[in-house]
Amino acid sequence: MNFLKLFSHDLRCGLRRKRYLLMLPIFALACASFLRVVKGTPGITWMDWVFHLFAGMEPQVIGSGEAIVLPLGFLAVMGGALLVNLDYLLNDLTASGQQVLIRCGSRRGWFLSKCLWNLVSCGVYFAGVLLVAAVFCLATGGEAALTNTPAAQYWEFPFTQIRPLSAGQCLLIGIVLPYLTMAALCAAQMTLCLFCKPVLAFLSCSGALLVSLYFDAGWIPGSGAILIRTSLFGGTVEPGTAILVDLALLLGSAIAGTIRFRKQNILSAEE
Amino acid sequence: MSGTLKSELWKAFHSKMFLLALAAGLLMSAANILQNSATVAEMTENTLRFLQEDPERFSGGHGGFSLFMLWLLIYFSLGALAFDFYWPILAALPYGWSYLKERRSGVYDQLVTRMGKKAYFRAKYAAVFLSGGAVVGGTALFDLLVNALICPVETPNIMDLPPVSNGSCLSALYFHAPWLFCLAFCGLAFLWGGVTGTLCLAVGTLPRLQVFVILFPYLLYYVWNMLYAQLRVHFGYLPLLSPLLLIQASPDYFNPGWAVFSVMSLVALLGSVIGYWQVTKREFS
Questions:
Q1: What is the overall mean pLDDT for chain B?
Q2: What is the pLDDT of residue B60?
Q3: In sequence order, which residues have a C-beta less than 8 Å from that of residue B204 and are 6 or more positions away?
Q4: Where does residue B262 rank: exposed (0-12), middle (13-18), buried (19+ CB within 10 A)?
Q5: CB < 8 Å from A in window 180-209 of B
Q6: String of DSSP letters for B121-148
Q7: Separation between Cα atoms, residue B29 and residue B189, nearest integer Å
Q8: How far is A93 from chain B, CA to nearest CA, in Å?
Q9: What's the rounded Cα separation, in Å, for the pair A193 and A83?
């Protein structure tokens, strides 16, 4: 079985799952909290909705005595990707997927196919997020533009230096960075599943997301998705650094997973 | 105690997952304790400096930085953040997964032919409840007792702007008998952990993998919390009705006692009624 056939098998089996559709109401809930901003701000664009979902939160000092603020929508969208992609590799290791693994003849190919599938799966998930944002935008009379409306972000993040961005900058921090961060975290989670229990892998990666929210540093995996902290808004996260961190995590996960999986005992594989 | 229950309890409290959950809980508590010890050291240094510089102006007290302000369920530290965010997973991790595993491996069939489905459900429910409660309540109690060795103990004073407001759950105890308040919240944390763990029985054998059974209560609470946040946006004032946040002794929103116990009862009802149906009536799919 060559690599392309293996990959197309993964795409066929791994993308036809109801859970992508089940996540749509969660995205809608995450979008719903932006409705009050839309009411008071004219000229809201599609990119503003996307910015709302991936904005994250302004830095909060832990231990300052303030109450805990959880950016529920951001965590739901990013954490949802971790959940959706959590079990595909495990299913293929513990059930009839083992048949494919035995027949494909190459463990390296099998794992790399899963890594590529992860990228496509995150793409499908991300497209769902963008689609829900577009539906909300059109339903509320917004414009399908790729630029932001500073008043909308200022409403939610009054302590950040909000400024209008070009379409290219918006695409970079609103689409490219969140997607890469999501894919990198999911890849890391998939690799961690080979080393420890899946629940621990989920806890580690969602923990990285949580830590990136409360520690203002660009090198923490997950901070790339928090667009309100990027240097374009006067924050500490350089988009270039975040892209490098995400690519390193993607590559590192693929290499570590391939090495680990070559010696994995699949006969005793269980959850 | 019946043999069935004894056996389930033994399995629950000797499983690796129970130890893993306990270790995770203690790790969160340790993070809180470390941060508190740094806070208390800094505060002591400041107090000594004030005393040396101008002893007459020093009014005494610790400016609110006492045990009853720095405890895991009250304070906002890194450990408290992790605990507040992940406690439903800690509750489900010890033994919530066991029903699915026994059903898939066939152990369930062996057991119910000997003891009956109802007795099996009762024993399983008790074991899941107690193990989940022990991890969540135990973490809160451990944090309280170890923090008591580090932090000064001072009855909360309204002038120090304590995080517990008048009218919230057990607030009268907080200002008069704070130890009792903390112990009562440890008990509440135990109950929350217990009822949350039993939600795993409600999901039954629907997921194929254990990991989704363990994550189910967390997901449910998270979506519940998102729905509650939307309700609050639309209706303005609402008491806290989200189980994810109700475990805190000083949440961001008003948490009257009736809200705490009503939501807890609802969760317990969901876990027990649907769990009973799943275990005794539903066929394995």
A1: 90
A2: 64
A3: B99, B100, B103, B274, B275, B278, B279, B282
A4: middle
A5: 208-209
A6: HHHHHHHHHHHHHHHHHHHHHHHHHHHH
A7: 14
A8: 12
A9: 13
Question: What confidence tier does B65 reach under pLDDT thresholds 50, 70, 90?
Answer: confident
Query: What pLDDT does residue A271 have?
Result: 61
Considering only CB atoms, which chain B residues are within 8 Å of A79? 222
DSSP-assigned beta bridge partners for residue A143: A45
At residue B2, the pLDDT reads 79
**Residue-wise pLDDT tens digits, B158-210:** 777 778 888 889 988 998 899 999 999 999 999 999 999 999 999 988 888 89
Burial track B138-171 (b if 16+ CB lie within 10 A, e otherwise): bbbbbbbebbeeebbebebeeeeebbbeeebbbb
The ipTM of this complex is 0.88
Residue from A166, A162, A127 nearest A146 by CA: A166
pLDDT tens track for B14-29: 999 999 999 999 999 9
Q: Count of CB atoms within 10 A of residue B38's CB?
A: 12
Distance in angstroms (rounded) separating the CA atoms of residues B200 and B198: 5
Percent of chain B with pLDDT over 90: 58
CB pairs under 8 A between A and B: 88
CB-based contact B209 A83, cutoff 8 Å? no
Spatial neighbors of A61 by CB under 8 A, at least 6 apart, are none
pLDDT over threshold 80, residue B228:
yes
User: Torsion angle of alpha carbons A187, A190, A192, A194, nearest 10°?
Assistant: -140
What confidence score (pLDDT) does residue B88 get? 96
Q: What are phi and psi of A270, to 5 degrees?
A: -145, 165
**Paired tokens of B48:** 């000594």
Query: Is it the case that residue B120 has pLDDT exceeding 90?
Result: yes
- The three-class DSSP label of residue A69 is coil
**In this complex, which of B75, B208, B211 lies closest to A198 when CB atoms are compared?**
B211
Q: Per the structure block, which two tokens stand in for B217? A: 């209560």
Which helix (H) or strand (E) segment holds residue A123: the answer is helix A107-139
User: Which DSSP letter does residue B73 get?
Assistant: T
The answer, for A28 touching chain B at a CB cutoff of 8 Å, is no
Task: Count Cβ atoms within 10 A of the Cβ of residue A99 and give its class: 0-12 exposed, 13-18 middle, 19 or more buried.
Answer: exposed
User: Is residue B90 within 8 Å of residue B79, measured between CB atoms?
Assistant: no
Residue B3: pLDDT over 70: yes
For A39-53, what is the HEC assignment? HHCCCCEHHHHHHHH
Nearest-CA neighbor of B152 among B38, B276, B61, B260?
Answer: B61
**B78–chain A Cβ distance below 8 A for any pair:** yes
Please answer whether residues B151 and B70 qualify as being in contact, where contact means their C-beta atoms are separated by less than 8 angstroms.
Answer: yes
In which residue ranges of chain A is pLDDT below 70? 1, 62-68, 95, 268-271
Q: Are A249 and A191 in contact (CB under 8 A)?
A: no
Are B15 and B92 contacting, i.e. CB atoms less than 8 angstroms apart?
no
State both tokens at A82.
């971790």
pTM: 0.91
- Chain B CB contacts of A80 under 8 Å are none
